[in-house]
Amino acid sequence: MSYKVLRKPSVLNQHYGSSLKGYLNGIRFDHMIQVFGEPTFYPEDSGDGKVNYEWLFIYKSKVFTVYDWKVSKEYTENFLGLEFCGNFHVGGKTDVTDFINFIEEKVDQEVGILS
């Protein structure tokens, strides 16, 4: 499976027009870091303060986002990489089922969380 995690210089507003399509449950922040690296965006990048961390992906030539939504910054800072778990939002412009399956399988292969 071919994928790419976008970094800030390469983003160029590619995620505009995407919206919530699904959720990742049971995957912790540290799992995302371990498998996919640092997020594309951090709290200071959010214009409205509703997203602390967001990864932008190109998967099968489509743009997808994985992000926390309305999680207090204090909670995230207190448990960064330890307890922050579940309910990552998944955004896109099309159906995200295949992308969610890819993320879950990739994390499970590398971290072993779903076994």
Question: Would you give an account of this structure?
Answer:
The protein has about 120 residues and is α+β, with helices and mostly antiparallel strands. Helix 2 crosses helix 4. It contains 4 helices and 5 strands, in the order E-H-E-H-E-E-H-E-H. The protein starts with a strand and ends with a helix. A hairpin with a 2-residue loop joins strand 3 and strand 4. The protein is globular, with a radius of gyration of 13 Å. The protein is about 30% helix and about 25% strand. The chain has a 5-stranded antiparallel beta sheet with strand order 1-3-4-5-2. It has helices at about 10, 30-35, 75-80, 95-110; strands spanning about 5, 20-25, 55-60, 60-65, 90. It has one domain. The mean pLDDT is about 80.
In round numbers, the mean pLDDT is 79
The chain-level structural class is alpha+beta
* Helix percentage range: 25-40%
The quaternary structure here is single chain
Number of strands: 5
Number of domains: 1
Sum up the overall morphology in one term.
Answer: globular
Give a short account of the largest sheet: 5 strands, antiparallel
Q: State the end-to-end distance.
A: 21 Å
User: What's the order of the H and E elements?
Assistant: EHEHEEHEH
Low-confidence stretches: none
Number of separate helices:
4
Strand composition percent: 15-25%
Order the strands across the largest sheet as they lie in space.
1-3-4-5-2
Estimated radius of gyration: 13 Å
